[in-house]
């Protein structure tokens, strides 16, 4: 079997650079590739990159989705050491706390393009 390495995750957005700016502020990761239609953030620890591409017809997912809603295709899980402080930081960067919260030690937020992401404590 050939060797596989997951090198990146790509999120679509109406404007790639705008969503990249949000995650840059949220995570503090430096930019790699960076233009209006494709931007990449590089994790300092050398892990999986986070990229963003412009999708002109982007339709934000609905959280939680009903039967006729745009389904979320993926979400990011981000471990934090202080849920309240991290949540306040996420909101100051432009995230919105989702109305539906399914777990006690996890907080679901929506990024500016509508993608859900979860902040969670170690062990949650």
UniProtKB/TrEMBL annotation:
Q: Which PANTHER family match?
A: CONSERVED PROTEIN (PTHR35908:SF1), HYPOTHETICAL FUSION PROTEIN (PTHR35908)
Q: Which residues form the Glyoxalase-like domain?
A: 9-120
Pfam families reported for this sequence: Glyoxalase_6
**What's the name of the protein?**
Glyoxalase
* Coiled coil segments of this chain: none
What are the top taxonomic ranks of the organism? Bacteria, Bacillati, Actinomycetota, Actinomycetes, Micromonosporales
């Amino acid at each position: 079997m050939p060797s596989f390495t997951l090198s990146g995750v790509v999120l679509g957005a109406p404007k790639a650079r705008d969503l990249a700016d949000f995650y840059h502020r949220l995570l503090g990761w430096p930019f790699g590739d960076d233009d209006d239609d494709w931007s990449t953030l590089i994790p300092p620890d050398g892990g999986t990159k986070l990229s963003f591409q412009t999708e002109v017809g982007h339709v934000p997912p609905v959280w939680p989705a009903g039967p006729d809603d745009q389904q979320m295709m993926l979400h990011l899980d981000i471990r934090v050491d202080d849920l309240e402080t991290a949540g306040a930081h996420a909101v100051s960067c432009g995230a919105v706390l989702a109305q539906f919260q399914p777990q006690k030690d996890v907080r679901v937020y929506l990024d500016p393009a509508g993608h859900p992401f979860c902040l969670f404590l170690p062990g949650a």
